[in-house]
Amino acid sequence: MSPNYMRSFSEGCLRPPTVIGQFHTLFFGSVRMFFLGVLGFAVYGNEALHFSCDPDKREVNLFCYNQFRPITPQVFWALQLVIVLVPGAFFHLYAACKSIKQEDILQKSFYSGFYVFSVFLRITLESVAFWLQIQLFGFKVNAIYMCDVGALEKKFNITRCMVPEHFEKTIFLIAMYTFTVITVVLCVAEIFEISCRRLGFLKPQ
User: Where, by residue number, does the polypeptide cross the bilayer (predicted)?
Assistant: First the structure.
């Protein structure tokens, strides 16, 4: 791919054809990624080390932590961010290869329809991630986790484990849910903006 294609691709990703799309990029790229990258590491970085059970033995702690966290929230949310970016990146790659200018995307039905389809995919992926997050993490992190250690052939099948910084993790969970909802609302608003532009209710930028 030539440098011109790469430049067009990067410009398309950073400056979508709609005003709301540009705001979505700013929100997604700065606020959401910063929140996950910086604060997420501070909240979840040492969770496995501070997760302790009764009896406080390494094998019990490790077994119960793997049961408590089938996938760490940081990994899940990082995968979510990457996957949600794919539809838009694919569209802008297509636009770069076809030498489509950003201002022309909303002028032709095929291009605008393709772009709207990519936004619909974003909404779908965000909704699926929202549902998966509920299944994996719920809405609240409890201070005590009851772990089934029967597979370790312990005397008692259920043991109590202490979850570190459970209140901070609950706040972080709610924040990530909120970010997902905001992203979906922005995507819906972007489709509405495109529809208004196509119908002539809004003037081109």
Answer: 25-44, 75-97, 109-132, 171-192
